[in-house]
Amino acid sequence: MPEKWIVLRNCGVIDPKRITTYLDRDGFKALKKALAEMPPEQIIEEIKVSGLRGRGGAGFPCGLKWELARKAQGDEKYVICNADEGEVGTFKDRYILERDPFTLIEAMAIAGYAIGAKRGYIYLRAEYHHLLDLLGKAISQAREKGFLDHFEIAIHEGAGSYICGEESALMESIEGKRGEVRYRPPFPPSRGLWGKPTIINNVETLMNIPQVILNGAHWFNQIGTERSKGTKVFSVSGDVKKPGVYELVLGSQLRELVMDLALAEKVKIIQVGGATGRIIPYDMIDTPLSFETILGAGAITVFDESRDIIDIVHRTIEFLAEECCGKCAPCREGTEVMAEILERFSCGEGVERDIGVLEELSNAMMLSSLCGLGQAAPNPVVDSLQYFRSAYESRIRKN
Ligand SMILES: Cc1cc2nc3c(=O)[nH]c(=O)nc-3n(C[C@H](O)[C@H](O)[C@H](O)COP(=O)(O)O)c2cc1C
């Protein structure tokens, strides 16, 4: 089996309410080692050599991001943990936070030391309100034990919006403004929160840090594929017998996850990476899961033979149109027009020309939208037209 627990190693093993159970599992050893033996530059080098890439969807190299923030000029710097987890079908960060808040706290404290930040924020999805108390108590326990003398962590509750998971909108939200994306450059490592150098990392990305520091970059570097090191935590849902959270070595096959672990049957369609992710047919189930092929934030939604592709794409685009922040026209107008056209197809009212419009619109949005939402929103449309074109053709009005 390709399962391996690096990120989830403490989940279900420690008591998330009691720091002593974490200390019994080598808890805060990595932080102690970092503070006592490793200059910040060495930590960053270790993360770079490990090959760890961001798990929030974009796959940006973690060590490089930290290095840019370390080198940036600024009297203050910030570490932000992105726990917004708004992607459709993603629930792995919640699973982690509920079971092991301490590793995240330790990782953020290491990050703070490495980039020279004294303050960090956990941007917590609004719907995860039930975790406020657990996280707050975990931070207090770490502080009482003296692990946070150099670094303070605050929790910022999200604004209940999908776009606030996008890093620039997230910072606007922490600053008390409407969650809209920013023009880039500048990027957060040079000008982030309140104009100061900032790193923003996904929960899962950070969860790897203590293990990389304790076991070394080369240990981590041996796991996975050439350009996808380590493991990935997946949230599997939909038409499967065993929905849930699974951690697999990167490069494992989609088949192993969906068929062998989640026990799907009669699979027709798999959506990988949530609303802005890719849609693939069953015959591509042997695709490896990696940054080189297909991954996203790890949402895997399985649809069996009873499901209708047009319906899936229509609902996905409606969601994106609803969640678009409205700042740039390609995304604001494009998602609305796509939703209208798909509505027509759902009712059997599509016309031949609509397919061409969907394709042109997809191109324009990918090229000209301001952020990842608009750039990736056409993915379900493009993929469904590629793999399930006959479903559209059969819904074209016949007169
Ligand atoms: C519309 C949109 C929503 C996003 N939502 C999240 C999210 O909920 N959690 C997350 O970690 N990253 C999310 N991202 C990606 C972040 O912008 C950013 O790339 C990520 O937090 C960086 O962390 P990483 O390098 O550790 O992956 C989103 C991006 C877009 C475009």
Descriptive labels:
399 residues, alpha/beta, Rossmann fold, Ubiquitin-like (UB roll), de novo design (two linked rop proteins), 3 domains, 5-stranded mixed beta sheet, 18 helices, binds flavin mononucleotide
- Identify the overall geometry: globular
SS elements, strand count: 9
Which small compounds were modeled alongside the protein? flavin mononucleotide
The helix-strand sequence is: HHHHEHHEHEHEHHHEEHEEEHHHHHH
**CATH class assignment of the largest domain:** Alpha Beta
CATH superfamily of the largest domain: NADH-ubiquinone oxidoreductase 51kDa subunit
* Uncertain stretches: none
Using only C-alpha atoms, the radius of gyration works out to: 21 Å
Strand order of the largest sheet: 6-5-9-7-8
CATH topology of the largest domain: Rossmann fold
Instruction: Please report the distance between the alpha carbons of the first and last residues.
Output: 53 Å
Biggest beta-sheet profile: 5 strands, mixed
Q: Domain count, please report it.
A: 3
| Proportion of residues in β-strands | 5-15%
